[in-house]
Write a structure and sequence with these properties.
13 helices; TIM Barrel; single chain; Enolase-like, domain 1; nine-stranded mixed sheet; four-stranded antiparallel sheet
């Protein structure tokens, strides 16, 4: 079996305004890049890539740098192709961290389809479901966070993660309001997205301990390994990080060996695909650390995240960004939690995705 084509389409996300209005870093198009790896036998592997600030730029990078490496190759040689892209990236300029992973996901989708198995079983199944937590965007007030958390608690979710503003005094108000209103039975997490200084993070971490929050995610820049070491030494609450560190698996090693995180964050988009995420999870397991898989912000890659989460042991929760509609675009069977707060892995072959190709064509910007 040989790869005959890698088709790349840039899709305008009709929910861009809603998505980028609720995250840090300014507004962007939030385009979706749709990958189709095709073979002479008619099998095809698919993935969405995160467009970053420009879907066309991402598409051109994948098309000009990675696509030529794939044409004529056996798509089942995933490890060889993963290593080849890594070597090429070192010698010929650095790809964005979100460019390689989706290509690897599409290869795994194709391989599992060839085997006639759901991806999680192709990887080696550990379970078929796991508990989800509702993960907020940045909302305008503490009251808005509380109301949203209440709504999702009624839907069956047992855990909620707040993405606050990065203003310590205001954030603490929201942290306290959530615990007061939701009670002790609701698992709560905080992710200020690198919003604090070391001194602020230490003070807020102690308040989160008092409020019985479950983890404190990315309080500092991922580059501040010294600051993370100090937080891990000083605080009882679990510190989660390494979400956006360049180097993927290899950058994670430094944080584990220096005891700079208690929980590693990883995913298929920013950490080298299914291959990179599985390697990272195994590395974490060897250190006795959980590898908690974080959202990719798009429906097809989050399905890949769910398959990997069901193929590893050391992942406790699945992240579901809310409201869900903006992050469900392009597939007819997006991930939905059941009434008890669990998400279930699809049982179709490969990713088990039902891609809405007509909808994607309706929002097509260009083909690369």
């Amino acid at each position: 079996m040989k790869i005959t084509d890698v088709a790349i389409s840039v899709i305008a996300n009709p929910y861009s305004e809603m998505v980028t209005g609720g995250i840090k870093g300014g507004k962007a198009a939030h385009d979706i890049v749709f990958l189709e790896i095709k073979t002479g036998e008619g099998l095809e592997g698919n993935a969405f890539a995160w467009g970053g600030r420009s879907g066309q730029a991402t598409a051109h990078l994948i098309g000009s740098i990675i696509r030529p490496l794939l044409i004529g190759q056996d798509p089942l040689d995933r490890e060889a192709l993963w290593q080849q892209v890594r070597r090429m990236d070192r010698w010929w300029g650095f790809l964005p961290i979100y460019a390689h992973g989706p290509v690897d996901v599409a290869l795994w989708d194709l391989g599992a389809k060839a085997a006639g198995l759901p991806l999680y079983r192709f990887l080696g199944a550990y379970r078929t479901k796991l508990p989800a937590y509702a993960s907020s965007l940045i909302l305008p007030s503490a009251e808005a966070f509380v109301e949203q958390a209440r709504q999702y608690k009624k839907k069956g979710y047992r855990a909620y993660k707040i993405h606050p503003w990065g203003d310590p005094a205001r954030d603490v108000e929201a942290y306290r309001a959530l615990r007061s209103e939701l009670g002790e039975e609701m698992v709560l997490m905080s992710d200020p997205v690198a919003g604090y200084t070391q001194q602020q993070a230490l003070k807020i971490g102690r308040e989160l301990e008092r409020l019985n929050y479950y983890w404190f995610e990315e309080p500092l820049s991922d580059y501040d390994i010294y600051g993370y070491q100090e937080l891990c030494r000083a605080l009882e609450i679990s510190i989660a990080g390494v979400e956006s560190t360049p180097g993927g698996l290899f950058g994670t090693t430094q944080y584990l060996t220096q005891r700079a995180v208690d929980i590693v964050r990883s995913d298929v988009s920013w950490k080298g695909g299914v291959t990179g995420l599985m390697k990272t999870a195994a590395l974490c397991e060897a250190f006795g650390v959980n590898c908690e898989v974080h959202t990719t912000t798009n429906a097809l890659l989050d399905l890949a995240n769910l398959h990997v989460s069901c193929a590893i042991r050391n992942c406790e929760y699945f992240e579901v960004l809310i409201p869900q509609e903006p992050f469900s675009f392009g597939v007819r069977n997006p991930i939905r939690a059941d009434g008890e707060g669990y998400v279930h892995v699809p049982q179709g072959s490969g990713l088990g995705a039902e891609i809405d190709r007509d909808l994607l064509d309706d929002h097509l910007i260009c083909r690369i």
